Amino acid sequence: MIKLSNLADYAVELMCCIALKPADVHSSADLADFTRIQVPTVSKILGTLVRAGLLTSHRGFNGGFSLAAPADKISITNIIEAVDGPVQLTNCLGEGTSDCDRISSCGTRSQWYRINEAVKAALGSVLLSHMIESVPDFIGDGTADDLPLISRLIN
Fold it and tell me: Is residue 74 pLDDT above 90, yes or no?
């Protein structure tokens, strides 16, 4: 199964919250309260996103976090790679050494490379600004818990 880590998923959700109000400075506690992600996890992810240059940290009494670039300049690949590292479908596709002893005789590595590049391109084509576009009303049953994050923020 190919899937993102929970931290990468949470990072996208947190970045969406911040992108919906880009002029505001967002505290860890407020983001944790709104997303229902534990404060230590939110703090860890926000620190990682600051180190990756996707967020700016503001210190002081009214401190918090804001986007380091406009939402239409941040791709989903940027967020995922900040948290999980490079998008890499198999061990042999990384830039470092691989623990696979079949690299020299593997007949599918070049195709996996092609697939990996297609996945990266697809993720890279989705911008943070796309993720915060309005969500159709028919998603969920309309209860507050069932509404997607974006709908809860807009309403």
Answer: yes
